[in-house]
Amino acid sequence: MPESAARRLVVAINPTASFGRTSSVGAQVVERLRSDGYEVNELRAPDFEALKVAARAALAEHPDALIVVGGDGMVSLGVNLVGGTSTPLGIVPTGTGNDSALGLGIPFELPAALDALAAALARGPRTIDLGHLTHAGGELWFASALSAGFDARVNERANRMRRPRGASRYTIALLVELLRLRSRRYDLVVDGVPRSVSSVLLAVANNSSIGGGMLIAPDARLDDGALDLFIVAPVSRLRFLRLFPKVFKGTHAGESIVSLSRVSTVTVAEASGDIVAYADGERVGPLPVTVAVRAGALRVLA
Known about the structure:
Elements: E1 8-13, H1 25-35, E2 39-43, H2 48-59, E3 65-70, H3 72-82, E4 89-93, H4 99-104, H5 110-123, E5 126-135, E6 138-142, E7 145-147, H6 150-160, H7 168-179, E8 184-190, E9 193-199, E10 201-205, E11 227-232, H8 237-249, E12 258-263, E13 265-270, E14 276-279, E15 282-286, E16 289-301
Parallel strand pairs: 1-2, 1-3, 3-4, 4-16
Antiparallel strand pairs: 5-6, 5-16, 7-10, 7-14, 8-9, 8-13, 10-11, 11-12, 13-16, 14-15
Helix pairs in contact: 6-7
């Protein structure tokens, strides 16, 4: 390990990643890093809030990097702890959604992910952009995307469901929301210009994918200094179902009902008031929200 390399690491572990099926991964990450000669402060907690408190306290000791073990929820936790600071963020992807890792080219298989982390620690971090979001409840950072349409409603319904446990509740929530699919009227301010649109699916993306591999903005890059505004015009359920497989392949961009544009700032409001926004899969709160790109806001080990 070079003399200039990071030596003191905080490792924050999500024990509920993939609904508990990958809870042993954290121990393997810590073991590998210690065997590589790093001083590791291992953090575990029963829930995200407790983990956030513990991680914030650990970061006050000025470690050389924060490593998160989990899915996009853990990436969101890490980004909101070190975004806009000089502390690098490392990611070992587990969980059901790993869009940040996908966009960064971090392998999903544990041995390869650990090798990639070790290499990044040795050579140092790169910088990427973040989305900065403000709303009535405060402000936050996001790495991948703000969702304010159909997918946000699916997330909100799934999170309200007590049963079934596991990923199947998202499938059920998707089917219920599909049956209730209708367009919404949005009032936007895009780079200072007011604009009204009707849409069934609306997102502001920093990354190319959301929702576990939906390539909503296939040309988006994490370090291009811009966000991608993604809008799907009002469509029938049948046309929407035909569009969905194309979104996972990124081949929807040429469809007449799909609009993709590069932007710097967007304010999103919706008249009915029943859309709850999500950022990187985490609940933000009701619209309106304003998002802006912050170039180079995150140092990431990837």
